[in-house]
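Late entry, written up from scratch paper. The run itself happened at the end of the previous shift, but nothing got recorded in the book at the time, so transcribing now.
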Amino acid sequence: MPESAQIDRPRSTQLDRSDLFIGGEFVPADSTARVLAVNPATEQVTGSVPDGNERDVDRAVTAARDALRSWRQTSGAERSEILLRVADGITARAEELKDLLLAQNGSPRWWRDQDVTIASMLYRQAATAAAQLQQETIVEGPGGSNTLLQREPIGVVAAIAPWNAPQALQSIKVANALAAGCTVVAKPSPETSLDSYLLAEIMRDAGVPAGVYNIVTGGPVTGAAVVAHPGIGKVSFTGSTASGKAVARECANSLKPLIAELGGKSAAVILDDADLQLFFNSLQREGLPFSGQACFCNARVIVPRKMQNEVVEGMVATLCSFRFGDPADEDTIMGPLVSARQKERVDGYIQSGLSEGAIAALGGGTKTGFDRGYYVAPTVFTEVSPDMRIFREEIFGPVLTVSAYDSEDEAVALHDATDFGLSGSVYSRDLARATDFSRKLSTGQLLINGQRGAPSALRDMYKQSALGGGVDRIGGFLLTKGITQPSGDNKMKTIFG
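Output as recorded:
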């Protein structure tokens, strides 16, 4: 596959932060421990942030609780105006955000563009939701009584986001929580924390009141302290299923509400009348987006046995046409993995696939041509069965598996033969047939012929891909209180009149 030249750039100035954003200000962290940010393409240190401790977390939660008293009293229209200014700020400083993402997670230009654009869009959508929010409604009851239903914010929200799309995945949590009148303590991923400081500046400049939005950086210990804090009213988490289970166990100790978007092992099912070019065209955005480092990627390909060779040949040709290399190159489609640990993990899965009998039609541990950076060559495995780890487990790397079927019932069984149910695709020239087939599959989102729909459409995620539905919406950050108003005569009546 063509490899872009690795750009020989001088080492950029390190962005070393010793502060946190708490109570509307950048304040020194109590913790002296550090978390390093490393550029995945160069293996050079980009900067560092505090590895926050329990005192840092407590300061942030206290600030958020203090701010909640006044923020919850603001109108939806007031919150909407502020959220629109946040969206404008993200757009105005988009290139700065993208530069920071490049230096931290090594994402190619097209992925960075998407991440920041979606972040701005999510604040605009939340602004609309805030403006339309009906905080009180009246429901007529029996005997002339009425019940006033009051919707109020759930409290301080812990927003814990991953490194693969840090701006978009943090925004969907924060934007909807703020729209509902909640305050937030955000805990970004340790791999991508530097861009959160820029977002804090955007929040401050947009007029978000002090304490409404706070940031505590750090690793797993910091995240655990945020989740466990008694001042947190709800946790919104995106990450692996294993991490999500740990968060859920901690939330269960205090019956704390949790919404979590977790892992995936999605599949593209090709029916025998599919337009294969549509499938090949989708490999960049749906098959191996960000080198497969996305929970929704269609890492499994399920094909009619008679079409298997044609599909595999087309997959290999398409992946070999992608520009592979340094993400600083504007034309790069696939770059490095996020960290040395992630590269080691993916290399391990590739070796597991080979040892279990899968055949590498492409890649399989081949050299990438780079002497630095966390690069793994795109890999396509054939002869993959459900008992193999590469079929069942989320790899989070540039690895696609191909499994063949002889009947549609077998295709459904192959699709559903994992513990996940996040996303997927069905390819067919017959829309009605593809829709009917999709109804049989146990997953929360299905794209017909790779076509994405409305991002605001409500949906759930199945099996171990989510808790609490997995999708943040303004309603998830609201509680409903019922206040029953007696009838005019105020006499005791049964509910039957």
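Residues 447 and 454 are 11 Å apart (CA to CA).
(Scratch paper discarded after transcription.)
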